[in-house]
Amino acid sequence: DAKTTQPPSMDCAEGRAANLPCNHSTISGNEYVYWYRQIHSQGPQYIIHGLKNNETNEMASLIITEDRKSSTLILPHATLRDTAVYYCIVPQREYGNKLVFGAGTILRVKS
Amino acid sequence: DTGVSQNPRHKITKRGQNVTFRCDPISEHNRLYWYRQTLGQGPEFLTYFQNEAQLEKSRLLSDRFSAERPKGSFSTLEIQRTEQGDSAMYLCASRVYREDGANVLTFGAGSRLTVL
Asked: For A52-81, what is each residue's pLDDT tens digit?
């Protein structure tokens, strides 16, 4: 079972920031938080990962709360091509740190 | 293209037939994973290889399923005596060792299996 909780769906206006929340209240001190996304009919795509500090790359920013029990993925200027299922994943050490995908959040970017 | 390549992209077969999928990972990636994804669900882990060694198999991988990675390069996933419940997208992913230990996978586009 996934260790994360995400809303099933969200809408975002094109050009606005998309903020996708994730709860991972049982995370251990040295477990990463990963975000992947899956555009329709494609394989999942890595976006970003973080441990304690906030992270930013060319795709997105990841904000992790100080207690590490939740995080937010931010797409600063969402485009129609960002419409996808977004997965927040915390691999479980007892399962060999494999990526276990939940249902994710369906993000619909609308013009 | 230096990504993960999967073939065939689509396979339609009759129940009871055998099918084989091939995955060519990124060349310097030593770990290779197979996942299965059914409609509306997230990908489910099946098995993974470190070089040529198959290190873990999910309980989802029944004895009709076999995966190989000879010489630690490409991998094949064979399903024998297919059943309608095997209809799914079969995803392959690979990764390279990172110093931070992060599990950053590169996925292929998948092989979609339809069992009639």
From this structure: 989 999 999 999 999 999 999 999 999 999
Residues 6 or more apart whose Cβ sits within 8 Å of residue B94: B4, B23, B25, B26, B29, B31, B32, B33, B105, B106
Which residue in chain B is spatially nearest to A97 when comparing CA positions? B103
Which residues does chain A have within 8 Å of residue B108's beta carbon, measured at their own beta carbons? 43
Contacts with B18 (C-beta within 8 Å, 6 or more apart), sequence order: B78, B79, B80, B81, B82
3-state class (DSSP) for residue B104: coil
Contact between A19 and A73 under an 8 Å Cβ cutoff? The reply is yes
Mutate to test the interface with B, among A49, A51, A52, A98 (most CBs of B within 10 A): A98
